[in-house]
Amino acid sequence: MTGDPDQVPLAESYTEMTELLLPNDTNYLGRALGGTVLHWMDICGAIAGMRFASEQVVTASMDHVDFISPIDLGEVAVVEAYVFNTGRTSVDVKVDVRAENPRSGEERRTTTSFFTFVALDGDGRPTPVPDLVCPTGEEEELRDGAVAERREQLEDVADRLGT
């Protein structure tokens, strides 16, 4: 903790949650439904945003999502999120998902996206968020990596759309 309520370290927003992929959340191939994965990502991202802002947050946007690898029935989905950038009333959150085979311990990356959440006060109005600080080299690397990855992802989408 920085001691300054107007500055919050990236690590304070870090959130990890796990979900066991059960039949109700699978398609006919026994793989995770895309909407289920997006739901988990939105929840994990929102928790990271709330931890950072110490306020309720709502989803403002979600960047492009590629489903890189499936999550199979019986696997554990590990969803990780952290704030990597802030605006006046918004927080940008990187959310990564990986699949874990609980028997072998094998893991693989499945999905990554970037969310923007807006902090709300008790009356439901946008409210300022603290500044992000990265007091450790590890936090700086996470922030810088997320900024670069988001920029690259947005450029790739623009290229695909021909803009």
TrEMBL record:
<dbReference type="GO" id="GO:0005829">
    <property type="term" value="C:cytosol"/>
</dbReference>
<dbReference type="InterPro" id="IPR040170">
    <property type="entry name" value="Cytosol_ACT"/>
</dbReference>
<keyword id="KW-0378">Hydrolase</keyword>
<protein>
    <submittedName>
        <fullName>Acyl-CoA thioesterase</fullName>
    </submittedName>
</protein>
<dbReference type="GO" id="GO:0006637">
    <property type="term" value="P:acyl-CoA metabolic process"/>
</dbReference>
<dbReference type="GO" id="GO:0009062">
    <property type="term" value="P:fatty acid catabolic process"/>
</dbReference>
<dbReference type="InterPro" id="IPR029069">
    <property type="entry name" value="HotDog_dom_sf"/>
</dbReference>
<dbReference type="InterPro" id="IPR006683">
    <property type="entry name" value="Thioestr_dom"/>
</dbReference>
<feature type="domain" description="HotDog ACOT-type">
    <location>
        <begin position="11"/>
        <end position="123"/>
    </location>
</feature>
<dbReference type="Pfam" id="PF03061">
    <property type="entry name" value="4HBT"/>
</dbReference>
<dbReference type="InterPro" id="IPR033120">
    <property type="entry name" value="HOTDOG_ACOT"/>
</dbReference>
<dbReference type="GO" id="GO:0052816">
    <property type="term" value="F:long-chain fatty acyl-CoA hydrolase activity"/>
</dbReference>
